[in-house]
Amino acid sequence: MTTYEEAIELAKRRGFFWPSFSIYGGQSGFYDYGPLGVLLKENIVKVWRDEYLRLGAIFIDTPNLSPEMVFRASGHLEKFSDLAARCSKCGSRYKLEALLKKAGIADIPTDVKQASNLLENINIKCEKCGAEIREVYDFNLMFALEKNEKEASRLYLRPETAQGIFINFRLLNNYFRGKLPMAVAQLGKGFRNEISPRNALIRLREFYQGEVEVFYDPEKPGFTDLPVFEETTFVPMDHKEQRMTVREASSRGLIRNPVLAHFVFRTQKILSSMGLGDGVIRFRQHEKNELAHYSSDCWDAEAKLEDEWVEIVGISDRASYDLKRHAEFSGENMVITDGDRKFIPSVVEPSFGIDRTVLSIIMTSLYTRENGSKVLKFNTSIAPYIASVLPLQKKDGVDVLAKDIYSSILEAESRVQYDESGSIGRRYARQDEVGTPYCITVDYESLEDRSVTVRERDSTKQVRISADSLKQNSGHLAAYLDSLFT
Q: What is this structure's pTM?
């Protein structure tokens, strides 16, 4: 199993991501995406976006900053906090939940008084200086900006992209010609003042989210179909793992809301298409004491990373909480009329953590061959590059032909690169390590008949094809190359 350390080392060396501000000593909770990381992230986003476009979702883009009243209405100012613990000797801060879980304590306190009583009766020591930890306090996770003296209210960096959708509900539904259900998606950054950022892209202070707010009529919900898909593991509140399909989980009442079940299925489908399938992913239901203040039920898609399960997608039943709160605080009418009926729509929210998905894919794709070389087994749909064109030599016209073939593919497919540096074996190894599924080698035989060798990354099998077929199929290059080895 790949460790965080191994994944972070490869990511930095090969240009996927690295700590921000490194020449100034870095800052915990911030990472930069390198050249390959940007491409990987964008391909992951494309898979996510395309799935929701096919569903009929509409997309918006709203500011990172919001006035205080937005988060007073949403409840974040009052309730968006974690219990934190502080060492009175060295001042180190910890997320209390993480400290207690390390100590084998599963029953996590929900308020400062409970937590303080617990710490008085157990021996939890500071990981840095060894002193006993006794101090507990509420730590608000929102970033506030200094108030401009000309402005009436303080601005906050948003902790989620969702509120930008909720406050635009009336405008969006008018655009959607008053129809329900209505799925509204937004990709953007969220900001959380994490107590103890850790594990690279897992717990960041600035992060990418892909959130969808699905507004529906509780009496005519829509989005309830559940096609047959592969079994997965469910962990409900009682902690008893169960193997079944999402359809079965819904029919048996494990997932009570059929709309929530549909988006658990859709999340499973999206993750599977990225290479995060059964055996890597499970779905765990939140316990009552860990539900967000706006949520009545929530199932997390979790990935097994190192020795822990990590949330990468949360599928939450927000009911009508947000629309009711914004109607109350703003005076905006959020009521929908259907004949004689008047109601405020309910909401289900699948929220993708894009950065966490990036790291999960890297960690679950990375393996080491018997010869010691490392391989990233990326699916073709998300790999930074589908293929790399490799001239066997940089002379005798081989490189000229290779560049010509490369240019002809680029006319229809941009996810191809050209690599002529080093021996052919070294180049194969380099492309394997960055997850390129196919290498297209141009050699002396190519000069005679315009044929090339295509090498598949995982099996290392090779086939000989016409270079002209690459140009002819460049509009669907990934599918064409996949077909050569299936």
A: 0.92
